[in-house]
Amino acid sequence: MRTVRIGFLTRSFSPQTRSSVPLVMQALVEAGAIVDVIHPLADTTELSQLRPQHDLYVLKQLSGLALSIAGVLHSQGATIVNPYPVTLTLNDKIVAFRILQRAGAPVPDTFLTSQPTTLAPLLETGPLIVKPIHGWDGHGIRVISTAGELADLPAGKEPVFAQRYIAPEGPELKMFAIGGRVFGVKREVQLHAKDGRPGKPFTPGVELCRVVLRCGEAFGIGLYGVDVIERDGTPYIVDMNSIPSRCASLLHKRSSTRKAAGISGSTSTGRSACAPADAASSGLRGSTSATKRPRGDGDTAPMRSSASPR
Question: Residue 61: pLDDT above 60?
Answer without folding.
Answer: yes
